[in-house]
Amino acid sequence: MQAKRDYLIAPSILSADFARLGEEVDAVLEAGADMIHFDVMDMHYVPNLSFGPLVCQALRRHGVTAPIDVHLMVEPVDELISLFADAGATYISFHPEASRHVDRSIKLIQDKGCKPGLVLNPATPIDSIRYVVQQIDMLLLMSVNPGFGGQSFIPESLDKLRDARQFLDNYQPDCRLEIDGGINLDTLADVAAAGADTFVAGSAIFGSDDYAATLSTMREILDS
Fold first, then answer.
1. Distance CA 141, CA 143 (A)
2. Pairing outcome for strands 198-201 and 36-41
């Protein structure tokens, strides 16, 4: 299991109440979340539509200073990389299948002053990013198929997490290993033990009655 100080919890606003999004983000950060996760969908790369860079910009103007972790489920990616970077994103991660030139897209994120990440779908092999992994700050593994919140965790993701942890230890040990999809109080311990250090949770946090209690329980699980 990773050093406890390295664990980051990133609530996904896809499960938040959009009628009062600023309050929701303030509440989870006050309750102990480390950063805010954006699931950006375009109804093209995935069969759903979520939100764009104006939401990121609005949260920054609202006063949110915590890192904003943007996951682009869009195709093509470069235009939205620039827009989200200008809107205040911290991390910007994309699916390699959605970029015609992965190296160029990574460098665009870096040139914009953001931290680049790559996202692997459940069936995408880890070795497919071997020759660019040293350029990224985040590797995000999907433990559900992308496109919808509230899905159940795919059990085979644990084996992939273990392989990814070893892969990063060999090629890019400073890279964070993030997991997204079906992360809740029942799956958290297993994914941490498998090597994840950054945890995206949507309905498990925003769907709970007490954000602080839920995040506190998550910390207790990670500290055990």
1. 6
2. unpaired
Strand extents, DSSP E, 96-193: 115-120, 138-142, 176-180
pLDDT greater than 70 at residue 166: yes
Q: Identify whether the C-beta of residue 137 lies closer than 8 Å to the C-beta of residue 117.
A: yes
Active site residue ranges: 39, 180
Among candidate residues 142, 110, 124, the one with its CA nearest the CA of residue 37 = 142
For residue 73, what are its two tokens? 């489920």
Contact 215, 9 (CB under 8 A): yes
**CB-CB neighbours of 20 under 10 Å:** 11
CATH assignment of the domain containing 117: 3.20.20.70
Length of the chain, in residues: 224
The domain of 73 spans 4-223
**Domain tally, the chain:** 1
pTM > 0.85: yes or no: yes
Listed as own residue / partner, the contacts of 155-161 with beta carbons closer than 8 Å and 24 or more positions apart are: 156/122, 157/122, 157/181, 157/191, 158/190, 158/191, 158/194, 160/120, 160/122, 160/126, 161/191, 161/194, 161/195, 161/196
Summarize pLDDT for 21-61 with one digit per residue, the tens: 999 999 999 999 999 999 999 999 999 999 999 999 999 99
